[in-house]
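idk why but the lab printer keeps eating my pages so im just putting this in chat instead. protein + adenosine monophosphate:
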Amino acid sequence: MKVLVAVKRVVDYNVKVRVKADQSDVDLTNVKMAMNPFCEIAVEEAVRLKEKGVATEIVVVSIGPKKSEEQMRTAMALGADRGILIETDEALDSLAVAKLLNKVVADEQPGLVLLGKQSIDTDNNQTGQMLSALAGMSLGTYASEVAIEGEQLNLVREIDGGLQKLQLKLPAVVTVDLRLNEPRYARLPDIMKAKKKPLEVKTPADYGVDTASKVTTLKVEPPAERQAGIKVASVEELVDKLKNEAKVI
Amino acid sequence: MSILVVADHHNADLVAATANTVAAAQKIGGDIHVLVAGEACQAAAEAAAKLEGVAKVLVADHAAYNHQLAENLAPLVADLAKAYSHVLAPATTNGKNLMPRVAALLDVAQISEIISVESADTFKRPIYAGSAIATVQSSDAVKVLTVRATGFDAVAATGNAAIEAVAQDAQDAGLSSFVGEEIAKSDRPELTAARVVISGGRGLGSAENFAKLDPLADKLGAAIGASRAAVDAGFVPNDMQVGQTGKIVAPELYIAFGISGAIQHLAGMKDSKVIVAVNKDEEAPIFQVADYGLVADLFEVLPQLEQQI
Ligand SMILES: Cc1cc2nc3c(=O)[nH]c(=O)nc-3n(C[C@H](O)[C@H](O)[C@H](O)COP(=O)(O)OP(=O)(O)OC[C@H]3O[C@@H](n4cnc5c(N)ncnc54)[C@H](O)[C@@H]3O)c2cc1C
Ligand SMILES: Nc1ncnc2c1ncn2[C@@H]1O[C@H](COP(=O)(O)O)[C@@H](O)[C@H]1O
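predcted complex ->
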């Protein structure tokens, strides 16, 4: 079975992001970039499926600037076999990304598409769901366990109240959550080998997809600052403050 | 303008965030209809009919809609959506699972987790784990939105809307099927709706130690939350995670024990009214958002606090 994994280049999760003075966007100049953490988990899962003999080929796809190749090479160092970069300098909305991924799905005919549950930059949490609709595939979001048996995928997903088990018909779209696995680190020889793996570069126009968005960002502001608090010296003082100052207990 | 709110519910009851979503719909303005799609979901429909500001409740009662499987439910919502200017759902796991699929069927964008309504087409939403707030405007014919409950005060349950069955030809898409679920049972208030939340982090050290939060939570009638580290370490189940990728809470009082205050955790609780942090590291970033910080060993603080409250 071929597994397609969608990976996105985003700001590194450790970076404290700041808003530009003109409020047009966040300021990403000279900021460390990385693979979206949920995409790392998706890649790891694909690699484990390959190690189990379930997956036969892992194709990574990314939509973004040229530099997304860095994250694609990382995915290849972890075990992906080849990559497709759909190059664009525009920040596309999830619908446009899903439409492009749908074209790749049509070309590649994967048995399983793995995505992160959420990009940590836009916090959208949409792309996998949209792709499943466009491709007419089954959908499993927030996966914490994935097992493939024949034509079925047994899924455990994290939901508000706890865990839910679903059975999905393949081909399926699955978005992964934090507890699915712990991604490995790439080894140096694999990083070297990854440089030689095939990476095809395309553009949105090659797929004939209109990527214009009907949603425009009018401004980006910093969140409301909290008033600086105080340190209390003892439990007594804390209880007194909560009772008499904050009046919350 | 008319607005469709897709209720989140468990057939027998309505998920509280539905009432906050109706509040967001009121801010947009227009006739508000609520869709309750499930199986044997009359009780949830009756609860929805009581929500203030709701003009009509549409009920789609069919086995295919049980468990709100997106493949079955999205076509129904997308079909109904054509008669509305806006379709809203709470940003619960059900809402977030369903709405992008609805939007894709309608060929429109979906706007996630709005925290305010600026006008009928303009909304605010947090991005980058709440490090920034974006104001976005949509020119899509139907606006498909999920609503972050903490951004809107729930409407009261004093209404009395009409309940109507929707004519439907419900179909099981045959793509996915429900196998089972493990739902945490607790007598405590629901995390996202609690007035007081007590959370524990890696500092609690173990599952047994995590239970040391119970007596204080009992005394305060609090819900219990956790950091990702505490969930990953297996101290508590996933549904207790507070943060960017867990639950978003904004109680009157949030008390964090042994949580360092990573941005991803803060994203889920920094809109709480009063924040207390107990941490033995005085440099812990959680103190930057805490109204009251106590630099101490949490295991010494817990019994004292319980006694003195
Ligand atoms: C993609 C992604 C998503 C994430 N989503 C979330 C999320 O939704 N929610 C979330 O919480 N995190 C999330 N994280 C993880 C986050 O980055 C942090 O790793 C996590 O919040 C740390 O948890 P913690 O504060 O419990 O642990 P630590 O950072 O290890 O902090 C433990 C704290 O306990 C204190 N301590 C230890 N012993 C004691 C004691 N006896 N008394 C008092 N204090 C003590 C220590 O001083 C320390 O400050 C996410 C990370 C990523 C990459
Ligand atoms: N530009 C992109 N390129 C490749 N994959 C993407 C892109 N945007 C989103 N995705 C995938 O969709 C997941 C969820 O993203 P989002 O819906 O943007 O929160 C990510 O974890 C990726 O797997």
